[in-house]
Amino acid sequence: MKLGAFTVFKKEIARFFGDKRLLFTSVIMPGLLIYLIYSVMGNSLNSMMSDQTSSFKAAAVDIPQSVASQLEKQGFEIENIELSEVDRAKEQIEDGDLSLCVVFPDGFENVMSEYAGGSKTDSAPNVKIYFDSADINSSHAYSVTVAMLDELEKSVSNVFDINNASQDDGYDVASEEDAAGAMLSMILPMLITVLLYSSCVALAPESIAGEKERGTLAALLITPVPRSQIILGKVLALSVMALLGGLSSFLGTFMSLPSLMQGMGDELGSISANVYGPVDYVCLIVLILTTVLLLITVISIISTLAKSVKEAGTMVLPLMLVVMLVSFMTMYQTETRTEFYWYLIPIYNTIESMAKIFSFSLDPVCIAVTAAANIVYSALGIFILTKLFNNEKVMFNS
After folding, report:
1. Is 314 a residue whose pLDDT tops 80?
2. Contacts of residue 393, Cβ cutoff 8 Å, sequence gap at least 6
3. What's the pLDDT at 346?
4. Residues 42, 50: Cα–Cα separation, whole Å
5. Rg, C-alpha atoms of the chain
6. Rounded to 5, what percent of the chain is helix, strand, coil?
């Protein structure tokens, strides 16, 4: 790095670390907030799901004693009602006073016995269960009741089993690492990319459009330092600062992920960073570094064209929409791409490469193509920035 670029680099870094408020809001606060929010969400969801196992109030019409006993063992308080009272029970479900209402047909046990003996050939009896899917307690009570009735049906007419638990010799061939990798590869690439973008957009407009607006950039431009060196110094300094913010957000996300997974009812609460090796982390760091460089360069170009920080914030909105759209599209993609030309597409290539890392299918060629493409696009962006900085009309808003 030449002396001029190094001087600008030091100036930007000193300004960043000298402003404690900017340092806190850009680096410390994002990771801290994400960790607290995701942890609280996970614990709240976990607590909410645990509370559903307490008790359920249910109304039942002609319920067999054997079925009632099974439901009572699972925390149901059953009120026997007449068929004419079903409408009132449905209103109570809507009001939250009842979890559900079960209506059994007349002679349910006798009909089931006939089916068990093979003497019944017409349509099977229909058990009606009224519940409120918008209410968590009612929905959970419905799931428990259906599961219990399914077991009852199997005991009456069990023609064949599917994956009988008593004979389980490893039906699911996926290991715990595979399950964790599948979940992480779907969530983390999207989160990391969006967080990196947020860090970049929080810094670049202020450093370029903000200095244009205050007039300090004009004073820097009249110094003997070549404008290409000013650009290089600013882009590298902004990349370092954005990287710190992005890493903070990433750490906050990764540390809170086990709590969030447990709250979602997943068995992946023991997710650990130890499932990935040094090569995985090196590739991940390379992807993050080159992506930050690319994002900073693009946002710097937009900020240079803007006349103020407010205008720059408006102009970067389309870029934000593109980043989020690509992130969410790849989040629900069923398979990763293997052809190298897919990894020439900015942003998409980073998310796809990260997905490969987190799913334990690291492809060095794809990583290399992605990193090289990001660097080439960044170099092209710096060339465009140089042209813009040499344009007096652009730099002095004339």
Report:
1. yes
2. none
3. 92
4. 12
5. 30
6. 70, 5, 25
